[in-house]
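TEACHING EXERCISE
Course module: macromolecular assemblies
Task: Read the component lines below, then compare them to the predicted structure of the full complex.
Student: A.B.
Group: 4
Components provided:
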Amino acid sequence: MPSVTGCRGLYGEAVADTRQRLIDGTIETIRTHGLNGTTARSIAATAGVNQALVFYHFGTVHDLLQAACLAATQARVAPFVERLDEVTDLRQLLALGRSLQADERAQGNVTVLAQMLAGAQADPKLAEATATALQLWIAPIESALTRLLADSPVAEVIDTPGLARAVSAGFVGLELYEGVDPEGTEAALDALDRLAVLIEVVDDLGPIALRALRGKLRRTTKKSR
Amino acid sequence: MPSVTGCRGLYGEAVADTRQRLIDGTIETIRTHGLNGTTARSIAATAGVNQALVFYHFGTVHDLLQAACLAATQARVAPFVERLDEVTDLRQLLALGRSLQADERAQGNVTVLAQMLAGAQADPKLAEATATALQLWIAPIESALTRLLADSPVAEVIDTPGLARAVSAGFVGLELYEGVDPEGTEAALDALDRLAVLIEVVDDLGPIALRALRGKLRRTTKKSR
DNA sequence: GTCTATAACGAGATAGAC
DNA sequence: GTCTATCTCGTTATAGAC
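Instructor-supplied answer key:
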């Protein structure tokens, strides 16, 4: 197989190819074995390369983890952003979220992110890489929310950046929860579906009810803070 | 210190005390070192006992993890249930949730649950124990939600068991997210706060608006499923 | 760049004295 | 029940041949 860069070693293999195989192998290994079972040996086995190459190309297993996390996230976010731009209301946004989650689940990418997030708790270096990766998801979601809620009375009291983070973090939690209770996760997603409908319904209320709601929202919010 | 059971070994130490120290030490070790850093040696060091006692009392590190996870959760859920019974509306429920999360965060218990959840993804045995522990949280939350939403039009379209799971899973996700972005988590919780206000406001609408809302909720929900 | 071989270390787990 | 000592294995990482 020809390499993109054309670089080849004494053994005739392409360099860029090996690096990419290691990155892909890392993601796949986290997905199937968890972060705990992701060692230089298991990664190399999955990637079909020699174990020592992990250290030649990335120095440490740790650095490979970071590189793989970022690369995988970037690759997945790009197509998502395109679909996100076509969303015109909250229900479509949630539908996209579910469709996305189904895709990600099948590919195991949210699992990877969840594993990184868990591992990051006791590892500042990993935390940095994970926060960056998660931000890649959050930013476009925040943009979409801001756009969708621009004309809504709800926008006055909802903090869009905060909501975007809550949604993203919530999805990660759901993904983890799915690992121990798949049926429960389906029920949870259904419940969220209906909550989104609720917000949308509020948006579509007649002018009278809407004005009353607006006043109440403001008063109640002030009181509770 | 006198033991509950009174059992003592040749070295004069109480048995129940050592078991409890190991369980407490396990939780503390997960909290500070993550699941990855929780080894028989690190647990024993934290608990202040000999490393071999892990295997004498629990057979394997794995079994100790399960036991500690369940014990810690049960101990924490009990007082929570009492406070939950006193909640009379959704905002109080969320306020309790935030207060609880602050406590849990300070004690590191949700972190423990999150670590278990992450580890459970690649470990069926651990998954079972974690699902049981999480269910200890979900059950009382579900009861409270059912009680609070009993007289609400929202109850007709919201799936309470699903919502309870979504809330629980979401909190775990937020806890993990907090490890990599504390400020973002605060913003996310604020956003959820306001969402809860929204539901409550809908509940307090006048009879006319409420009837219109009810019809719309039914129609929209049917359409979207 | 890739391979084999191996060093250095920490992990789970056990044996046997006390 | 508790302790010390130790076995065995898997891990990261490196040295050096090709």
